[in-house]
Amino acid sequence: VLLIGLGGYLGCDPNSNQIPPGIPTSTNDAGKLPSGDPAPALAATATIPPRNQRTVVLGSFNMQRLGPSKLADAWTMEKFAEIIRQYDVIGLQEITSIDQTTLPKLVQLINQNGSRYDYTLSPRVGRAASGYYEQYAYVFDTARIQGGAEFCYLVNDDADVLHREPFVGRFQTITNAGQPFRFTLINIHTDPDEIKQELDILADVYRSVRQYEYPEDDVILLGDLNADPTRLQLLGTIPDIVPLIQGVATNTRQSRTIDNFLADKQSTQEFTGRSGVINLEQMFRIQLRDAERISDHLPIWAEFSIFENPNQQVMAGTSGSEVVR
What integer pLDDT is reported at residue 178 of this predicted model? Predict the structure, then answer.
């Protein structure tokens, strides 16, 4: 029997641990351009719906080893900032820098245009045997989302069955009319070498987090799953859990769908039915080799009502993502 505990800390500060009750489980110059799964049916597009007073846009993006090299690359960092400004909340993976000022510097760059983004950052996760560690993060617009001081936590994997423990965060929308949409996000980056085992374990993780977060019923798993939405193992058999990205590539070379959101189609009725993928080549009018300088993954998005349980919103079924131009 797999038991996974949930280790938590306030404000996502690794130095202030508080464990909740356990539960079962061109050129290089800045501003210049540098010189096995089913094939997705659609190509990613350049844009996502503009943010408005009735909806919020959630995202996920594997940044492909955000560390010293990318931090020193002004062109790439500017592109990261432009991408993140499209979202109300975005979950990030593959922050590999040992220097803990890397993400704060990126957020400072994001806010140079007057935006008011903040972030939560996980401890470094990984295995000593591989020597590879990374951090998860959530970056969110404080003008529209509350989250920085909310309780967030890393899932404790005492049996070491996952290469990188998921990072959980709670958020809610800011609105003066109606009940705000409250939701819990589970940020994950699976290991491609043990994908079948990890997807099965994530089914237990999802159930455990949902039980721990009760009565919160809007629990959304997001990140780099390294798996097509038709091949999610036990994770894909949880009743009413559906992938919100289907039939569209999420890697930069447009060949695989490996990043996704998973949500309960019965309880998360805030989902508007619109989701998709940003094509970096189209967004920045660059070539593939330039897009790959940013990341080998594309940012994904999904749109939700800003209000809890909106009567006019109906959760989309599993027929696929609507890609908005």
Answer: 87
First to last CA, the chain: 46
| Contacts of 111 by beta carbon, 8 Å cutoff, 6+ apart | 117
Q: Read off the tokens for 224.
A: 């780099």
Q: Which residues of 267-294 are buried (b: 16+ CB within 10 A; e: fewer)?
A: ebbbbbebbbbbbbbebbebeeebbbbb
Question: 108-124: b or e for each residue (b if 16 or more CB lie within 10 Å)?
Answer: ebbeeeeeebbbbbbbb
Tokens representing residue 241 in the block: 């859990």
For residue range 183-192, what is the model confidence (pLDDT) as tens digits?
999 999 999 9
Mean pLDDT to the nearest integer, 35-52? 71
**Cα–Cα dist 154/156, whole Å:** 6
pLDDT 10s digits, 62-121: 999 999 999 999 999 999 999 999 999 999 999 999 999 999 999 999 999 999 999 999
Using alpha carbons, list the distances in angstroms from residue 296 to 114, 128, 151, 176, 249: 29, 25, 31, 40, 12
Q: Give the SS3 label for residue 274.
A: strand
Of 223, 294, 224, 285, give the one whose Cα is nearest residue 252: 294
SS (H, E, C) 152-211: EEEEECCCCCCCCCCEEEEEEECCCCCCECEEEEEEEECCHHHHHHHHHHHHHHHHHHHH
Q: Provide the residue type at 169 as one letter.
A: G
Query: Is the pTM value of this prediction over 0.70?
Result: yes
